[in-house]
Amino acid sequence: xxxxxxxxxxxxxxxxxDPTSMAVPLLDLRAQYAEIASEVDEAIHQVVQEQRFVMGxxxxxxxxxxxxxTGARHAIGCASGSDALLLALWARGVGPGDAVLCPTYTxxxxxxxxxxxxxxxxFVDIQPDTYNLCLDSARRAAAGRTDLKxxxxxxxxxxxxxxxxxxxxxxxLGIAVIEDAAQAIGSRDxxxxxxxSASEQVCFSFFPSKNLGAYGDGGMITxxxxxxxxxxxxxxxxxxEPKYYHELVGMNSRLDALQAAILRVKLRHLEGWHERRLQNxxxxxxxxxxxxxxxxxxxxxxxxxxxxxxxARNAEPARHIFNQYIVRVPADRRDALREHLAAREIxxxxxxTIPLHLQACFKDLGGRPGDLPNAERAAKExxxxxxxxELSKAQREAVAGAVIEFL
Length: 407
Ligand SMILES: Cc1ncc(COP(=O)(O)O)c(C=O)c1O
Prior knowledge:
Blueprint: H1 29-50, H2 57-70, E1 74-78, H3 81-91, E2 99-103, H4 109-116, E3 120-124, H5 135-142, E4 148-151, H6 163-173, E5 176-180, E6 201-205, E7 219-223, H7 226-235, H8 257-267, H9 270-290, E8 294-295, E9 309-310, E10 325-328, H10 334-343, H11 373-381, E11 382-385, H12 393-406
Parallel strand pairs: 2-3, 2-4, 4-5, 5-6, 8-9
Antiparallel strand pairs: 1-7, 6-7, 10-11
The structure holds pyridoxal-5'-phosphate (PLP).
């Protein structure tokens, strides 16, 4: 995830396609590249031939394709998912004196973008089963506030937040919904809507570890609003349109043509990769369930055969795209589990060890331990396992087997 995706250790990784080794990295982007190398190389070659490296036709074409894929009217490319959040909030007029509701258990950029505009993040707890925004907690946090401008739900780990209830709450409060779908391109909410089409503005990241990952940084905003699209387009180019005529003070947040060309190739494969991630998740779920585990709707405090909780999924037509497959284990055993996996050369990761309301940089906002208990507990019990599309059956069995053996 942002800035911290695991760099595959080349000397520790099995040679691609080596069936005798069971080392399993958390993510193996080389395996993906091996499948699409000729298409990617050709796309890069064309951009290099043209020598137009920033914005241009590749970026416009990607914007149209992402708009079509998500069902949005507009898509606006920019330099990263963090910038997409910043530009979306900025385009909506969020600034000093304003407050924005956002979850405390998420990647830093969700709240960092609010703070960078001089506004105040108001932290909200998560649902313990889906890890997405808890609407009761949001309602409590909103009570009595007159400075709220927006709510920022996150589609965490690739599962859409409860968008219908979030939109209802936002309508009640008279505020905007700006969705952080950095991890969730192609995901569908409980009403079957593709993420990107439902909220006023939706922000995506193309960080390499995302399901649709660039070969560097990249991001995109989708919106149905002509006005917000026009403002975001202006702000990403220093507010200048036409060139050298500045209506607004914006920033430089352009998308590279090379990244757009690579992303256009990868977009053609994305549905297949989502399907394979889903099959991997189904397989893990089955292996853990057979060993006596339950899903995360049931707390680890309740007895079951295996002290592990696999991810709870919303029912169809919702679709989780499993950017991450996370399990819960008892907090006091998590580090030892990771050591056990590392000794078998199996990758794992912990995301969001410290919820945002407890981060040093937000100390002045007054957050204290115990304020948002579901998030604080999730931060101690959660661990991510390898879920990338190219995992083999034997690798999945090795991962689940090692976890079960330890627990
Ligand atoms: C939930 C969430 N929000 C925002 C971002 C920021 O995206 P980027 O790393 O592209 O700036 C990320 C990605 O890491 C993310 O996971």
